Amino acid sequence: MDPGGLELISFGGQGQIYRWEYQGKHYVIKAVLNDESVFRRLNQMREAVERLAKGLGQRIPEGILKRAFPVGRGWVDDPEELGFDKSDQMTVIVYNWIDGEPLDSYLLSQLCSEPPLSSARVKLAKQVLELLTFLEKAGIANYDMFPDNFVVDPLGQVYIIDMEGAGLFDPGTRTWIWTPVALGKNFPGYCKPPEFDAVDEDLKVFSYRWVGATLVFHILFGVSPFAFMQRIDLKALLELYDYADKGAIAWPPYGAEKAQYVNPRLDPAKFRTQIRSSCGVGSRGVCPLEVLAFLTFISGFDKPAHRPSFEFARLILSEVLAL
């Protein structure tokens, strides 16, 4: 392909991202430093997804099939033409192009005026949870579940993108086949799980559930579940956990008011009232959004395996998702 025909879109965590037109169709082109393991990782994840779909007797969700995996590959003859060093060995990954808007800007442009748990928010969250549930059943652990790693097309269909750094584990033994690379970046309102800097990779098997719960809460309620905090680094999270009442399901947890890093403009009690007034109390006598947040961020704080799976999260939120 002619480099002059590439439209630079952005700089990703692993390289440069372009839009390319070929025979009347648009594609996403990623030029990354040569790493054959990227293709082996993606191919094994695709195989895992295909096995699951076959075992369930259903099709792979469109939101995964169309954009999560490559449709082609290649290499760069002259890296200098793309702004890299001449000695760099560059690999090209080709994906289908999705006409749409990144989820982060979609939430601002299309849903900013929507109240918490509106039908539009519920529809979006339901789609995202379906995709995350399918990937989890296939043994795929994707830490980078930030809003800008999803695209929403003009019809409202959600697609997950950027899976190069996702991990693959054996669902039966919970042992890694491919370990996740890392959380790609800091995203406003999204914090790293407490175990993220641990040396033992086995402690991170369930880290993706922390990020996924944050995403679903954000979509449904319009803000991060940590909006009541001024800081969300490990020190602030540890303080929150220490003060939290572990015996009462609530979000923010009872006791959070004592924490040093509380947001003075949205204290825990006020935020808790907003959640309950919007979500209501479910048939079990508690607010489903609070249940998901409490089980993930408090009960699962130092016990990652206790964090709700995405399938269980769908059950917890079933009354909300039925709105």
Automatic annotation (TrEMBL):
The domain of life is Archaea
Positions of the Protein kinase domain: 3-323
InterPro entries associated with the record: Kinase-like_dom_sf, Prot_kinase_dom
GO MF term set:
ATP binding; protein kinase activity
What is the official name of this protein in its record?
Protein kinase domain-containing protein
Query: Gene3D superfamilies from the entry?
Result: Transferase(Phosphotransferase) domain 1 (1.10.510.10)
